[in-house]
Amino acid sequence: MKINKHIKIFLLGVLGFCILGFIILYSQSRRFDNLIENGRYTIAQGEEIKKRRTGWSFIFNYKVHNEVYDGRIKFMVNKWGMKKGGIYFVVFDPNNPKKEMLIRYPSVPEINLDSIPAEGWAELPVPVPKDSIRNFLD
């Protein structure tokens, strides 16, 4: 029984798409794990919430080694409790501070923003198990 050339191309395309999807999911998982294991923590401040064509974007900034970095997260519905001027924790890669993830919970306690170390904290200044942080990043 001969398999049509178009069917072969279709099956190879589906297989390639599945492999690409797996690679993307695996690399994203490794990024989260790397940030949890080797990341440093600092404070981010909410700058803006924008309505986009496909959902909402929350734009925030944070400072590492006296350099300000911008970050953003996207979500479908504006019910996450994010607000302009809000203070949140951020975990970032110490070798590349542009790689970051915003941590929505736990909330940031009363803290003097001038007392934040320039290189960030090795651990959050509030007691939180790393497994619970991983749950909020997923």
What does this structure look like?
With 138 residues, this protein is of the alpha+beta class. The protein has one domain. The protein contains two helices and five strands. The protein has helices at 5-38, 130-137; strands at 40-52, 55-64, 67-75, 87-93, 96-103. It has a five-stranded antiparallel sheet, with helices on both faces. 14% of the residues are buried. The model has no long low-confidence stretch (mean pLDDT 81).
Radius of gyration: 20 Å
How would you describe the oligomerization state of the chains in this entry?
A: single chain
State the distance separating the first and last CA atoms.
46 Å
Summed up, the helix count is 2
Give the proportion of residues in helices: 25-40%
Largest sheet: 5 strands, antiparallel
Strand line-up across the major sheet: 3-2-1-4-5
Mean pLDDT: 81
Summarize the structure.
The protein is 30% helix and 34% strand. The chain is of the alpha+beta class and 138 residues long.
Layout of strands and helices, then pairs:
Elements: H1 5-38, E1 40-52, E2 55-64, E3 67-75, E4 87-93, E5 96-103, H2 130-137
Antiparallel strand pairs: 1-2, 1-4, 2-3, 4-5
Q: Notable features of this structure?
A:
138 residues; alpha+beta; 5 strands; 34% strand
